[in-house]
Amino acid sequence: MDHKVGVLFVGVCGHLSTTVMAGAIAVSKNLCPATGLISEKKPFNKIKFTPLSDFVFGGWDIRSCADSLNALKDLGLENIQEIWEIGQQIKEIQIKTFPGITLNAGMAISEISEQGHVFKTDSIKEAIEKVKEDIDHFKTENKLDKVVVINLASTEPQISELSGLSSMESISKLIDENQISTIRPSLIYAYAAITSRCVYINFTPSEGGFSGGLAALAHEYRVPVMGSDGKTGETLVKSALAPMFAMRNLEVLSWEGYNILGNMDGKILQNAENSSTKIRSKDRLLPHILGYQPHSRVSIDYVPSLGDRKTAWDFIHFQGFLNTKMTLQFTWQGCDSALASPLILDLARFGILALERGESGVMSHMASFFKSPWGIDEHSLEKQFRLLEDYCQKITDHTP
Amino acid sequence: MDHKVGVLFVGVCGHLSTTVMAGAIAVSKNLCPATGLISEKKPFNKIKFTPLSDFVFGGWDIRSCADSLNALKDLGLENIQEIWEIGQQIKEIQIKTFPGITLNAGMAISEISEQGHVFKTDSIKEAIEKVKEDIDHFKTENKLDKVVVINLASTEPQISELSGLSSMESISKLIDENQISTIRPSLIYAYAAITSRCVYINFTPSEGGFSGGLAALAHEYRVPVMGSDGKTGETLVKSALAPMFAMRNLEVLSWEGYNILGNMDGKILQNAENSSTKIRSKDRLLPHILGYQPHSRVSIDYVPSLGDRKTAWDFIHFQGFLNTKMTLQFTWQGCDSALASPLILDLARFGILALERGESGVMSHMASFFKSPWGIDEHSLEKQFRLLEDYCQKITDHTP
Amino acid sequence: MDHKVGVLFVGVCGHLSTTVMAGAIAVSKNLCPATGLISEKKPFNKIKFTPLSDFVFGGWDIRSCADSLNALKDLGLENIQEIWEIGQQIKEIQIKTFPGITLNAGMAISEISEQGHVFKTDSIKEAIEKVKEDIDHFKTENKLDKVVVINLASTEPQISELSGLSSMESISKLIDENQISTIRPSLIYAYAAITSRCVYINFTPSEGGFSGGLAALAHEYRVPVMGSDGKTGETLVKSALAPMFAMRNLEVLSWEGYNILGNMDGKILQNAENSSTKIRSKDRLLPHILGYQPHSRVSIDYVPSLGDRKTAWDFIHFQGFLNTKMTLQFTWQGCDSALASPLILDLARFGILALERGESGVMSHMASFFKSPWGIDEHSLEKQFRLLEDYCQKITDHTP
Amino acid sequence: MDHKVGVLFVGVCGHLSTTVMAGAIAVSKNLCPATGLISEKKPFNKIKFTPLSDFVFGGWDIRSCADSLNALKDLGLENIQEIWEIGQQIKEIQIKTFPGITLNAGMAISEISEQGHVFKTDSIKEAIEKVKEDIDHFKTENKLDKVVVINLASTEPQISELSGLSSMESISKLIDENQISTIRPSLIYAYAAITSRCVYINFTPSEGGFSGGLAALAHEYRVPVMGSDGKTGETLVKSALAPMFAMRNLEVLSWEGYNILGNMDGKILQNAENSSTKIRSKDRLLPHILGYQPHSRVSIDYVPSLGDRKTAWDFIHFQGFLNTKMTLQFTWQGCDSALASPLILDLARFGILALERGESGVMSHMASFFKSPWGIDEHSLEKQFRLLEDYCQKITDHTP
Predict the structure, then answer these.
(1) Which end of chain D has fewer CB within 10 Å, C or N?
(2) Confidence of residue B81 (pLDDT cuts 50, 70, 90)
């Protein structure tokens, strides 16, 4: 066993996982600066995080891996030879992809799954065992003892009966009784990861990967867990802007947000049952920050020509002194995977740090990374960030 | 003497002063809610501030007062009868306006001044004495002992030799030697206000109202002073958004801001010598918040048809992970006087509070109200706001 | 009988009708210029149109009339006394409002109807007779022989079986067999108007007011008809911009349009069955102008705080030379009734002109006024406008 | 001599020329569709234009040629191997670049010129002779008899005394008297091209390339000339949108346009003397289309991080019925060279067509390609386009 650290992605063949791996390679080779990585910036860079070159990647997918060059073309790297070489390295990783789980994943996800890439089973228990075996195999093959499992898969439909996930006991019951219709694949990966003593991170809004039961399980198995739903674009801007209205006692009358995007994420979110999960996650912050619920809307539409370039238009109608109405509009044009991937590397690093420090359960100081922060009801970006700064302060104060 | 508090505006006939007075009347009569006033909101509303109905208004101007109904029409009040009545009350106040000072005010300002509304003098000392007499007269007539003087006049040209303002002694020298070419009217009002033991607030970017010398003078005379340049629109949004890029380690490549407005403020700012003062004030925050200076621009153009409805378009070009370039644009459409006027009432209230608590010199905890906060180099809106929260906490902790 | 001309609105109590009447009054009294009226502009002003002061207004509604002052407040008139007087004049007109028809109007419309304002019947024939009697009564009372009936009512749900409207015979059959479920109120008003020899104008997208059968009926009764769906905002801009892409051989990949509005129109369009009628009408022009169907979207959402101030954001993704992708975005912030009302006065004038000239059937030269121009498949604004110019040229050439 | 056609660029090493050549190569090899080329689209594709593979490229420059791969990277081609091969072909062309002329080109342009790439002379006559020799040499070497000369160089400062360019005689006088201070390089290239019987196209706003004298000269030498200033971005949109306001009798109060760009064009336009030439050209169309001059602005700012990706924000404030004020904003994000280059190939084709048809002097039917159309005062895009359609109609009617 050595200093290397494993990172296993649920959805390792996707655009996002590919970008995470490309970024880890490019930054460790100094092909580009560490822009976007918090862990490389003051004051966090005082902490000894896992070097990016020490990450060993792998994961599961329900589809074959597309040409990784495709995912890299739209990003900002300029040297064609270098892009090609990175693409080759990623290809070698993706060859070893484990088949994924589609047990009750819903129509939209099942439809994109491919023959030979799905582990077929009707048993929750069997599915969990399979994922745990994959983790063990990955550890042994790469001589690792520390592994982070990160869910980057498409958004699943909502779970009808969330109470089943509220405690360790109720989850055990779901598994024992093989209640397929009330679980989702996200629960299977999360359960397997935690009980295999991996750090577990739910970067998606899928509800199976984020519950009271899992939090308790993480305490029991002494591993840190984090989530949910990476805050990368429109919601990030909202969490920076909404406090401004509160701090000026300006009344938000309406906050209408329209998102258009063209990647696989967008394609899956075309389906109402999947998008409702996402929208619920994105629409959470306004009442928390403002103290009241203005008229608000979060819509997500699939526009194939955009590819990974997501655009959001937000229209904010507000009322000020003497009942005067005014507006603020913003247009956010981001590259989804370029925004999300440094967060994922940061989360993996903070996850390993917590594991090494013996912390377990929900890491609520990671709130600034998530649309639906697990373990705390704080949505203001700056206040969330302060939690992280305080955490870091505590660590560095006690480090000689 | 009673519980009433005097508020004297430099520029009492302008759109902004008129809106401040209209707001104070309308809110105290319950014609509209106190939206926009921080002092009426948690946690600040625990403090006993001066009731709005206890403010007695007055001031100086270099022009005759325009029809105040004109200024109120574009705001959000709906009852025509009520608007008319408020207009009448303001008219009675504005009848008593003192003539203003134009000593070395620059071409643009001198040109809008009107015969019979300017106190003619070639002596700085005489000008100061005149302002002090006006203050005394106002106090006596209204039986007041506490007065706040607030500069709301048009932006003056920059001062060539700022070192003359750096200490009490150097200012005394300027006055004694009657160095007209190195002072501006803003200095005269500030000096007169402080030495008359008034709270002084510089809501403009004019440099005469904001210096080391004035800060020392305020200590000497045991009065609180605040400034400079009210943060109401584009800069407010910038100070909420810029920290987001820092908190995500995203590199801002270019931040281009274009402001268009149509009121008197905009008309004066058409002149390069006046607008450079303003632009310097607006362009200060990015290097402080980001830690480096991106390519940036703040332009202000006069578009008469807009009236008091200011519009700003900001284009932010930034670079993220793997050198990927992205953009954020926002369009801010605000009503300038509706945004500024509650800040002015809040500042007056905090000013009187400080005076009563025996605080003197620069009130740096008021940073969130200003584009160029006096006494502290903090530009992040949330961090500035925390200073105010901490100040309030301290007060309320010691109040039974 | 004299030179006066009657104008009857379906929906006479609405925001839009109120604004039309206010505009006719204000312009004829010279309280504001005729901005927005084509008929007052070169080259059309060479034609002798009905003076605005010769219009006599009236109409039907299913609700009581709201305070007309409310509708006028947000417009650009400034003199409060004048606004009040106009409001009084409109009130006198609206007192005489005829009860409206809700026969198979759909849930959303029926729900806003008020007791005592609906003519109750289960018979199509009876409903038609009632409307015809109202027209006769209006003519007699006001000593008119020329009347224009204009549908300004809320958008109705689509009609399931449009083939029933394709000929005069099929419409007669619908009426004879009293097939309530395949008609809508719009058909009843249109049928009554045409057979009462009125000019008929369908300013809404409601399908009952716009069909082959009605066109034939208009020929039979020798009256001009026009429609459908006034082109006032987003679609107007689209019809000006889309030809640009065609003229430059740029390929539109996606054209996504998001509309938010807060008036009664928006409230009714919250209902999917009503909005689908509207969206079908708005989404018609791109394939006609471009020659192919890009990915496109027209969404309409209700945002109450906006009132009559409609906002549209359109995002156009296009591809140029060497497959290079680019974007154009626009934000349209219009006052719906101020945009639509001059069109309505122009349409009434052109309608009376055609009637006097003995023209009958569909007036396809009016295409530039409509989202779904009746009688011609031309959607480019400039090409539509040329039809009107040519029509005007023909008339003025033959006038001494 | 054969069917090949020469195309000589003033500024052959720039981003734009490189893109033109890349496009000609890529489209003739079927590596991408002919999107953006009017000449390949109905109804123009009925005309027999020069095949793109028959163009032989060359030209002048005052700088060494940068790596052409750099210019191609940001465009839409995806196959890396193909991009590389195109880059090689362009490199071979650019090796033969003739040194350029900087005689009175102004500071900004002189500063970017490089040693060994400038033909040094103090004589206008000598400079003209040099350019004519280059043309001859290019013709002989490539066995061509038809050549198009296209000015794509940076915008020059305005010419103080335009009357010197008004007739053939006055231009001859300038040359004979060697009045260096009243000519610019653009005049030298234009004069040499026309007197060498080349088609001449002024794609820039530089005033030396566009005058009454040159028009007369073109008639004398029996060659077609076209210009000025390619209409590619913001002005294109304006010329499509402005007629909408005229067609609806809506009064434009203010039209404010802000352009930001980061290429060499933008760098040169940082200089006030260069940008005034450009702005004059861009600001011409509103009074022509609207019939009055609204408040308007065209500003151009250099934002290096944008590279060739130009962004324009236009804010249009307009007044409609009942004095109601409304706004339209648009943001145009275009790739400058991808927009301009197909126009240049179209212009070359139409130029050769006119030459073959024996047409000479100013080709005013090409107005839709230019911001300052030479020979006609029409600025509405659609009306300009109709001129081209009519021209094409005339030709195809007479073709069997």
Answers:
(1) C
(2) confident
> What 3-state DSSP class applies to A12?
coil
pLDDT in tens, D261-313: 998 888 888 888 888 877 777 777 999 999 999 999 999 999 999 998 999 99
Output the pTM of the full model.
0.95
Mean pLDDT of A201-218: 96
B150 touches B7 (CB < 8 A): yes
Residue D166's Cβ-count burial label (10 Å; 0-12, 13-18, 19+) is middle
Strand B309-319 to B251-261 pairing: antiparallel
Beta strands in C139-294, from DSSP E residues, in sequence order: 147-151, 199-202, 224-227, 251-261
* Phi, psi values for residue B115, rounded to 5°: -50, 135
Task: With beta carbons less than 8 A apart as the criterion, state whether B97 and B57 touch.
Answer: no
Subunit contact D339:C321, Cβ cutoff 8 A: yes
Cα–Cα dist B100/B103, whole Å? 9
Q: Which residue of B has its CA nearest to A231?
A: B248
B80: which chain C residues are within 8 Å (Cβ-Cβ)? 80, 84
Q: Which residues of C touch D83 (CB under 8 A)?
A: none
Whether the CB-CB separation of D142 and D56 falls below 8 Å is answered with yes
In this complex, the residue of B249, B326, B383 whose CB is nearest that of residue A37 is B249
Question: Residue B1 above 60 pLDDT?
Answer: no
**Beta-carbon neighbour count of residue D136 at 10 Å?**
12
Interhelix angle B212-221/B185-195, rounded to 10 degrees, is 20
In tens, the pLDDT along A320-356 reads 999 999 999 999 999 999 999 999 999 999 999 999 9
Q: How confident is the model over C173-208, as pLDDT tens digits?
A: 999 999 999 999 999 999 999 999 999 999 999 999
Lowest pLDDT segment from A384-388, B86-90, C313-317: B86-90
In this structure, the number of other CB atoms found within 10 A of the CB of residue C359 comes to 16
Smallest Cβ–Cβ distance between B254 and the set D256, D258, D303 belongs to: D303
Radius of gyration of chain D (CA): 21
The CA distance from D317 to D327, in Å, is 5
Whether residue C227 contacts residue C235, with contact meaning beta carbons closer than 8 Å, is answered with no
Local structure of A136: helix, strand or coil: helix
Task: Extract the tokens encoding B294.
Answer: 């991106």
Pairing of strands B309-319, B325-335: antiparallel
